[in-house]
Amino acid sequence: MMTQSDSYRNPEAILDIQDRPRPEQWLILSIQHLFTMFGSTVLVPLLVGLNPSIALFASGVGTLIYILCTKAKIPAYLGSSFAFIATMQALMKADGYPAVGQGAIAAGLVYLIVAVLIYHFGANWIDRLLPPIVVGPIIIVIGLSLATTAANDAMLNHTHYDLKYFAVAIFTLVITIIFNMWLKGFASMIPVLLGIVAGYLMALACGIVDLSAVAKAPWFALPAFDVVGINYDFKWYPTAIITMAPIAFVTMTEHLGHVMVLNKLTKRNFFHNPGLHRTLLGDGLSSVIAGFVGGPPTTSYGENIGVLAMTKVHSVFVLGGAALFAIVFSFVGKIAAVIQSIPTPVIGGISFLLFGMIASNGLRILVDNHTDFEKKRNLVIASVILVIGIGGAYLQIGSFQLTSIALATVLGMVLNLVLPDQAASEN
């Protein structure tokens, strides 16, 4: 990976990282990213039993903190992390939100500690641990591991196959592809937003949109923040800290993977400029803040990276705008309810394309670096990463779980270090 100066401009981008769109474009492009991340960001607190508006607020604030920490050099959006769901559900049943909040803060502090260590000892090891033969398959795994999520969203009713739901998802996918391929000018930059709107209208026509929550929602609603040390008597929850803090190492591998994808998309090396310590600092502070106000831990979102890949609009101002909208919408109950009413088949249809584009960028890394699959070591490394990562294998030790993506990443790095460049049979 090359290191570019701050004056470098990606010739493939329609709007590069420091490009500021015109106000009317800025508004629509930011809303596109808001719609893309909204479903997943509010789904996590709904599954755990937290307040979705607080999670939305925390994601917006966390994204702005991330942009600030990375010197506005990385276009990324931070939303609610799925990696902590099972642990948070258990903690909610046992001790309620105070325990979850302390666990989220502890996970964020782990990021901060690692960031400090990298700042002092450097990050040159990354190129050694993560060459193209490891990075490419990991990115493919990140995209394809989400395939089941997209398929489940597309069918909505998980108990049996329902053609009506699947039809909405396929319509959303097809119309988004058409928008992406044939629209010109500014419209070519917002195919995801247009696809969601078209899919939503189709879902309305099919009668699968529930508008009851929209009618009941107030125009203004102050989220019930669960502020640490204010909303409840302070008490230590060591179990929460012990169980949630180690999961931070799992989400760090996903963090590295997302930075790799962004490196590829933007033709930059964010590990060196602004530096991995800054990306980890931003991610960690975001989770700490989320824990303090009553939200779940946060992480960078593959859905929004997919939008960057599709639209070639990499402006950090657009992501910052989405973050501001998330904060505002967390206080506007009616608008939040409308966005929350988008049925999952619409999101599933969009996800078919977005997640696939992430995986395709992993293939591009292998092709662009002329990876030689005549070499046995390359075949072995790629095979292990792909099958373990996509197959869903994981490592469980007590309450600590190494997810399939994390396990595949670790094994890929180990194999890259121990396997010789040339097998004996190839001599």
From TrEMBL:
Keyword set, alphabetical order: Membrane, Transmembrane, Transmembrane helix, Transport
Keyword Membrane: yes
GO CC aspect terms: plasma membrane
Transmembrane segments annotated in the record for this chain: 53-69, 104-122, 129-151, 163-183, 190-214, 234-252, 316-339, 345-367, 379-397, 403-419
Transmembrane helix found in the keyword field: yes
Membrane topology summary: Multi-pass membrane protein
Subcellular localization, as worded in the UniProt entry: Membrane
Gene Ontology molecular function: any one: xanthine transmembrane transporter activity
Family membership: Belongs to the nucleobase:cation symporter-2 (NCS2) (TC 2.A.40) family.
PANTHER family: PURINE PERMEASE C1399.01C-RELATED
Name recorded for this polypeptide: Uracil permease
Source organism of the structure: Limosilactobacillus equigenerosi DSM 18793 = JCM 14505
